[in-house]
C-alpha cells in the first residue's frame, strides 16, 4: 500500500493556533508501566495499520526497554481514557510527539483539535528552552490528522513516499 509520511514542526511556541477548549478534556501524566500505555496505542493504531497494533506481549516488553525515557500522557474525556500523547526529548532542545491519537470511540466527536492543543502545549513545557516540537503523520492515518496538525500551526518540513 502506498504511503506518504509528512513530518511537521513548530519552531516557536507562538506558532500554536489553539483550538477552542472542550470542557471535560484533560491531559494528565501516565506512568509508563500502566497497562493503558499499550492498550491505548493498540486501540489508536489498529484502524490505521500501525505496527504496534499487532505486537506480541514480548515485543511490547522489548519495545518499552528500547524507549526508557519516553514520556506518556493520557487524554481523558469526562474521566474516560480517550487517547494518548507520547513524547521523546531529543538533543538540541527538541521534543518529538512520537504518538498522538484518540481511541476509535472518541474520533469524530470534535475533540481532536483541542486534544492536539493540549499535547502541543505540554510538549513546549516538557523541558527548559525547547526550540522545536515535531511529529510525523502518514497518509494512512485518519484523514483529519494532517489538516488538524496544520490548523494548530505545525508546518511540513519533509515528506517521504514508500510502501507499507
Q: State the CATH architecture.
A: 3-Layer(aba) Sandwich
- Briefly note the structural class of the backbone: alpha+beta
Q: What string, H for helix and E for strand, traces the elements in order?
A: EEHHEEEHEHE
Please compute the radius of gyration using only Cα atoms. 15 Å
Q: Class, according to the CATH hierarchy?
A: Alpha Beta
**How many runs of DSSP E, i.e. beta strands?**
7
Mean pLDDT: 93
What's the overall geometry? Answer: globular
Protein name: GNAT family N-acetyltransferase
Organism: Actinoplanes sandaracinus
Pfam families: Acetyltransf_1
InterPro entries: Acyl_CoA_acyltransferase (IPR016181), GNAT_dom (IPR000182)
Descriptive notes:
The protein is of the alpha+beta class and 164 residues long. It is 26% helix and 35% strand. It has helices at residues 35-45, 57-66, 112-125, 145-151; strands at residues 2-10, 25-30, 71-77, 80-90, 94-102, 132-138, 155-163. The protein has a 7-stranded mixed beta sheet, with helices on both faces. The protein is globular and about 40 Å long.
Describe what is shown at a glance:
This protein is of the alpha+beta class and 164 residues long. 26% of the residues lie in helices and 35% in strands. The protein has helices spanning 35-45, 57-66, 112-125, 145-151, and strands spanning 2-10, 25-30, 71-77, 80-90, 94-102, 132-138, 155-163.
Amino acid at each position: 500500500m502506498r504511503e506518504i509520511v509528512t513530518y511537521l514542526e513548530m519552531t516557536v511556541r507562538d506558532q500554536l493556533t489553539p483550538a477552542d477548549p472542550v470542557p471535560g478534556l484533560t491531559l494528565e501524566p501516565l506512568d509508563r508501566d500502566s497497562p493503558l500505555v499499550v492498550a491505548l496505542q493498540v486501540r489508536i493504531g489498529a484502524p490505521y495499520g500501525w505496527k504496534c497494533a499487532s505486537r506480541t506481549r514480548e515485543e511490547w516488553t522489548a519495545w518499552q526497554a528500547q524507549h526508557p525515557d519516553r514520556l506518556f500522557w493520557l487524554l481523558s474525556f469526562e474521566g474516560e481514557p480517550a487517547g494518548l500523547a507520547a513524547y521523546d526529548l531529543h538533543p538540541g532542545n527538541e521534543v518529538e510527539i512520537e504518538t498522538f491519537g484518540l481511541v476509535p470511540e472518541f474520533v469524530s466527536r470534535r475533540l481532536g483539535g483541542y486534544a492536539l492543543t493540549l499535547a502541543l502545549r505540554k510538549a513546549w513545557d516538557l523541558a527548559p528552552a525547547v526550540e522545536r516540537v515535531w511529529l510525523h503523520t502518514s497518509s494512512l492515518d485518519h484523514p483529519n490528522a494532517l489538516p488538524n496538525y496544520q490548523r494548530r500551526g505545525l508546518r511540513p518540513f519533509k515528506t517521504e513516499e514508500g510502501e507499507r
